[in-house]
Amino acid sequence: MPLSLYNTFLLVWIVLSGVIFLSLFFLPAPYGRHYKKGWGLNIKSRAGWILMESHSFLVMLFLFITGVHQRECVSIVFLIMWEMHYIYRAFIFPCLKSKGTPYMPIAIMFMAIFFNITNGFFNGYFLFHLTDPYPINWFWDFRFIFGSVLFFSGMIIHISSDRILRKLRKPEEKDYRIPYGGFFKWISSPNYFGEILQWFGWALLTWSLAGLAFAIWTVSNLAPRAFYNHIWYKKSFPEYPKERKALIPFIF
Q1: What is the C-alpha to C-alpha distance for residues 112 and 94, in angstroms, rounded to an integer?
Q2: Rounded distance, CA 175 to CA 132, Å?
Q3: Comparing C-alpha atoms, which of 155, 220, 226, 159 is closest to residue 186?
Q4: What angle do CA 163, 165, 166 make, to 5 degrees?
Q5: Per-residue CA distances from 101 to 97, 213, 246 (Å)
Q6: Which helix or strand (DSSP H or E) is residue 2 part of?
Q7: How far out from the chain centre does Cα 17 lie?
Q8: DSSP summary character for residue 103
Q9: pTM
Q10: Domain limits of the chain?
């Protein structure tokens, strides 16, 4: 695919993220605590999660194997960082996740599969097929260093926040409770905040439009959900801490 055609598709993809952002403020995605009937057939949440998230892992691996930079150190590091996230997200997280809502709509799963395949393609195709190899001195470029700090800081916040949520209830329990500790001191959805931070770090360390598109899409998907999570907490728990924001400490 020529670079000009790739960039055209990528810009359309970025515009579409704005449509999704607005849509999700009017219609929250019906899974987890916002699960609703009426979305057709359902699938077990754990199986659906693995099926939808594993595509990102597989697409990036396939594009690396079929690409032209398999022996380039920087490309190998990019692959490792991406796959580290999706090993956790696609395989570890759903296996550790407490029961909560046991089902998700199959329609939501297929939407997520489409997103993960498309997003994985845009990132992997650029990094391993389109662009020239990143030079070895990219490792001490400010963009790579600072982007990596953001990426791994976000990953730590994301995973530690998931752990706090998981510890709130015993395996046989389904009731929600108010989470405390870590970034929950300031926001209702620090797991989302961490993931957003991760992918803006990715955009910086790869210095790519595809990476930026992923970061924008992450905001488009998670900011509305964080907003609704925050409202749900406040409605469900009269004692919910009033100083907490939804997604960004002290701001939103």
Answers
A1: 15
A2: 51
A3: 226
A4: 60
A5: 11, 30, 22
A6: none
A7: 14
A8: E
A9: 0.93
A10: 3-236
